[in-house]
Amino acid sequence: MSVTDLPAPRSLSRQAALAALAIGGLLLLGAALYGRIMGFDLRRDEWMFVPPAATLSDWPLYSGQFYNHVPYSAWAFRAVHLALPGLDLLTSARLTVFVAWILLMGGGFWAGWRIAGSVRAGLFAAAIPLGSETLLSQAGMAATNNLLPLPFILLGLALFTMAHLSGRSPFGLYFAAGLSLSVAAGMKASAIAFVPAVVAACFLLPRGVPLARRARLTALPVALGGLVGALPLIWLALTEPTFFDHILRYHSGPHVAYWQANAASEPGLAMGLPGKVQLAQGVWLAGGAILGLFVAAMAWTMWSQSSGRDDDAARAAQAAGVVAAAMGTAAALAFVPTPAFPQYFIQPLAGLPVLAALAIRALPPAPRTVLLRALPAAAVLMGAVALPRLATGLADLRHPDLLTPARLSHGAEALARLAAPDGLAAGPVATLSPLYPLQAGLPIYPEFATGPFAWRVAGHIDPALRASYVMAGPEDLARLFGTRPPVAILTGFDPALEAPLEDYARAHGYRPRAIPEIQDRYGTGTLWLPAGSTQDNPGGTP
C-alpha cells in the first residue's frame, strides 16, 4: 500500500469524532432507558411476577402458590435474582426488563443491518420499539411478562428470514429460529400466535423444492429448536396437574367474571370490540409503529411498481409474506381475550423491524438509495416521540434514592425495623402487597405469595377449580389464621380489597401503626400489630 492509499488525518479525525459521538449517544440512551425503567412507578401486576424470584425457594410455582401465567418470565426474574444476590427483588426484576430492551433494540439493529444490508436500516429498525409510547409505559417498563417475549419473537422471525434468504437451508439458523419462538411462547402464552405462519412456511418454502426436502431441511430443524425451547413447558404439563387450571381455566373463567363485575374500576381495559379497536389503534397506529408501517408500505409500493426483480428480491417478498402473516395472526389473537388491556396488542410490533428490512432489501438499487436517505429523518422522529419519557429517566437518575426499587427497599427496611423487637420473623405477615415483607426478609403466607390476584376472584371461582389453587378468599381468613395467626397485617394499598383483612385485625385486637416509609402509587402502608407488642401504637392511623 502506497502513502497515497492512507486515509487523510482529517478524515481519520472526523471518523473518530463520529464514532465517539455515536458511542456517547448510545450510552446516554441506555442511561435514559435504565432511568425510565427504574423510576417508573410500581404497578400491581408486579405483585404477580416479581415475588416468585424469592418464593420459588420455598414453594413450587403452581402447586405451592398461585401463578397464572406460563413460567419462563418468573424463571428469568428468579435467575437474575440468584445471579445478582446483592440486588433487591425489584431492581433485579427491572434489570431483567432493561436487558430485554437491549436485546430488542440490538436485535432490531442486527436484523435491519443484515437483512437490508445497511446501517441506516439497522438504526431505523432499532428505533421502532423505542418510538412506541405503549412500550415506554407500563407494558415495557414494569417487571412483568409483557416486554420479555418481544426480543425472542423478533429474533425468531429474523433468523428464519435470514435462513430463507441465504438459499442454503442452514440448519443452525432454522434451529435457532424455532428455539427463539418457543422461548417467546414460554414467556407469554399469546406469543404462540407467531408459530403457525412459520410452520406453514416450513412446508411451502423454498419454492421449487420437493416437499420431502423442505420437511427435512427446513421443518425438521425449526421443529427441533421449538421442541428444545418447549421442553420445560411439556414437563410441567405432564407433571403439574394444576398447570392448565392456572393458565387456561383461570383466564377463561374467574378472570373474565371478575372484570365483568368490576370493569368500572379500571379505565384502561376494553370489554367489547369497539374498545379493543381503540386500544389497538393506540398501539399500532402511533409513534414508531406508524412510521415503521409507513416505510414498509412505501417500500412495497415501490417494489410492486419496479421491473426486473431478481431471485433475491423474490425470496425477500416470500419471507415478508411469512412475517406479515405471523404479525396478522398475533394481531387477530390480541382481540380474543376479554377484557383487553393495551399490553395485549404490543406483540405484532416485534415483527415490524424485520418486515421493514425485507421491504428495503427487495427494492432495486435506485429506489433503495432514495428510501435509505429518508430513514435517518424517520429515526429522528421516533426519537422525538420517545424524548419526553426518556428525559424523565435521565432526571430520575439524578436522585438514586428516589428510584422505585430504592423507595421499596426503604419501606422494607422500615418494616424490618418494626418487626425486630417483636420477633415478627418467627411468623407470617399477611398482606396483598407481598414485595414489602419479602424484601424485608419476613415470611408470608403462600396463599398471598403473588398478591391480590387469587384473593380478588375468590367469589367467582367454582369449588372444583378452587381446589386446584393455593389461595384464600375473605371467607377463608378464620380457617387460615386460626391455625397460624399472622404476627402482623400490612394494608393501606386497596381499601376495598383489604377491608376483610382490616376487619379481622380489629376483631382480634390488632392495633394499627402507620409506616410512612412504605408508600407507592396505591397508598401508604399501615402495619397492624397484636395488642401488647412493643411497637403497639393505639394512636396509629387505621
Automatic annotation (TrEMBL):
Entry keyword Membrane: yes
Membrane-crossing segments per the record: 16-34, 95-113, 148-167, 173-205, 217-238, 283-304, 316-338, 344-363, 370-391
Keywords in alphabetical order: Membrane, Transmembrane, Transmembrane helix
Keyword Membrane applies: yes
Name of the protein: Dolichyl-phosphate-mannose-protein mannosyltransferase
Organism per entry: Paracoccus chinensis
